[in-house]
Structures are given as C-alpha cells and as structure tokens.
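2024-03-11 09:14:02 DEBUG pipeline.ingest accepted 1 chain
2024-03-11 09:14:02 DEBUG pipeline.ingest length=69
2024-03-11 09:14:03 DEBUG pipeline.predict start
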Amino acid sequence: MNHPFTIAWSDEEQEEVISDQESLPKAQNDVLAYSISHQNIYFVIRRYTGFTNKLYKKAAASPGGRFTT
C-alpha cells in the first residue's frame, strides 16, 4: 500500500489582536488584547490519480506551486 502524504514540518504562529474601541482607553485595563494561535502542518504529497492528482492541479495553478487549505 502506498501512502502519498508525508508530514514535512509544522509550526505555530501567534497573532496579537487588539480590539477596536469607539473611544481611547483611559487605563491599561481598558485595552482588550488577546493572542490567536494558528498551528500549521506542511505536507509533501506524491501525485497519483484521483484526489492527489486534483491536489497537484490546484498547486500547479497556484502562485509558487503552493496553496493553503
């Protein structure tokens, strides 16, 4: 049995978000800030028929030969 999917690497991105308020904050406690974490997993996929061929065609049509899903 062939397995066309191989995990190449993974990483985590942190994005700090500060909420928009209608008025300026008067104290540090008035500032609402939080962090959003994104876990990314990168695959190397061998092209066969069916689903992996569809993924290949999508990547080939994307800038740089990569896409995010």
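2024-03-11 09:14:41 DEBUG pipeline.report Residues 9 and 36 are 20 Å apart (CA to CA).
2024-03-11 09:14:41 DEBUG pipeline.predict end
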